[in-house]
Amino acid sequence: MMLDCAVIGGGPAGLNASLVLGRSRRATVLFDNEQPRNAVTQEAHGFMTRDGINPGELRRLAREELGKYPDVHIKKQKVTRVWKHDGIFSMETEEGDLYTAKKVIVATGLKERLPEIPHIHQFYGTSLFSCPFCDGWELRDRPLAVIAENSGALHMTKVVYNWSRDLVVCTNGKQTLSGEEKRLLEEKGVTVYEQPIAALTGDQGDLKQISFNDGTTISRDGGFVITELEQAASIGEGLGCEFNNQGAIKTDGIGRTSVDGVFACGDASIIAPSQLIIAAAEGSKAAIGVNAALVEENF
Ligand SMILES: Cc1cc2nc3c(=O)[nH]c(=O)nc-3n(C[C@H](O)[C@H](O)[C@H](O)COP(=O)(O)OP(=O)(O)OC[C@H]3O[C@@H](n4cnc5c(N)ncnc54)[C@H](O)[C@@H]3O)c2cc1C
């Protein structure tokens, strides 16, 4: 059967896109291999009516809602390949199943790489986070560290300072701050540690201490780390979509990419600010874009 739309990725972007497509009576399959970017965390914040919800529960509720719409089917499968021929998209899943669709929405999100610091993964998502807007409130007024190996260090520190003034910056051996920036931070009472970090230690995800290679140790309750981000899937690239200089798939106001019939939404098309509610809204826009294109083609 020819689908109206294949939605690839079942995070908030793909789920909301599928909801709007289902309500628009569009034959849709939502593919998801259940590896969301926020899988490490237990609580998601800043989504109205759902502040503090477990991210898995948010997805479960959204999938349950899709059950009301008979034109939407969910496949817990990874899409490995998508190609376009004569204006129609074909896709193959890891299991070797083949599907065809008139339109494709890429909602595959991002994956992140943490700095190479011993034990950092034990704390990421519990007391170390990447987005102050998501988790700053929970860490307010506590002794925090910003761990930043690149030129975003000063900006991240300024932002986190809004939540806690008991703040240090760790650049893990990198010279990312200029003399002037270090003086500015010093004036604000923010100590800069430029020596390499030997290890993070703590208990059940709660950070307690940062040890440096030179033997220095400091006590910290948590903090924020700048992570490297990249597309979680190469589907947009494989279809020939253009990317912006941040690595996001370029889209217009209704999710259209540079490839006719391919739409993108969520973190895959907006690297920052990345938020659940923004991803969901972008999913809605992309679905409206798909619907508009189908209306024009079929009316
Ligand atoms: C530690 C952490 C904490 C966060 N906390 C918050 C918070 O409190 N509040 C907030 O608003 N935001 C938070 N975020 C950001 C938020 O998680 C993202 O902005 C949001 O998940 C993006 O939604 P998405 O649908 O674009 O991508 P995702 O949620 O990452 O979903 C993408 C989905 O696509 C699937 N997928 C990828 N490739 C394929 C493929 N080839 N085939 C099939 N499926 C595929 C993945 O398995 C995944 O399920 C946090 C992020 C992190 C890392």
Please describe what this structure looks like.
Homodimer. One of its GO terms (molecular function) is oxidoreductase activity. It comes from Halobacillus dabanensis. The protein has about 300 residues and is an alpha/beta fold. The chain folds into 2 domains: about 180 residues, FAD/NAD(P)-binding domain, CATH 3.50.50; about 110 residues, FAD/NAD(P)-binding domain. About 25% of the residues lie in helices and about 25% in strands. The protein is built from 8 helices and 17 strands. The strands form 4 sheets. Strands 1, 2, 3, 4, 5, 6 and 17 form a 7-stranded mixed beta sheet that branches. Strand 4 and strand 5 form a beta hairpin. Helix 1 runs parallel beside helix 2 and helix 1 runs parallel beside helix 8. The protein is elongated and about 65 Å long. The structure holds flavin-adenine dinucleotide (FAD). Flavin-adenine dinucleotide (FAD) binds next to helix 1 and helix 8.
CATH superfamily of the largest domain: FAD/NAD(P)-binding domain
What is the number of domains? 2
Q: What proportion of the residues is helical, as a percent range?
A: 25-40%
Main β-sheet: number of strands, strand sense, barrel status?
7 strands, mixed
- CATH topology of the largest domain: the name is FAD/NAD(P)-binding domain
Query: How many strands?
Result: 17
Element-level helix/strand string: EHEHEEEEEHEHEHEHEEEEEEHEH
Which geometry do the CA atoms define?
A: elongated
Rg for CA atoms: 21 Å
Q: Identify the CATH class of the largest domain.
A: Alpha Beta
Which kinds of small molecule does this entry bind, naming each only once?
flavin-adenine dinucleotide
Name the CATH architecture of the largest domain.
Answer: 3-Layer(bba) Sandwich
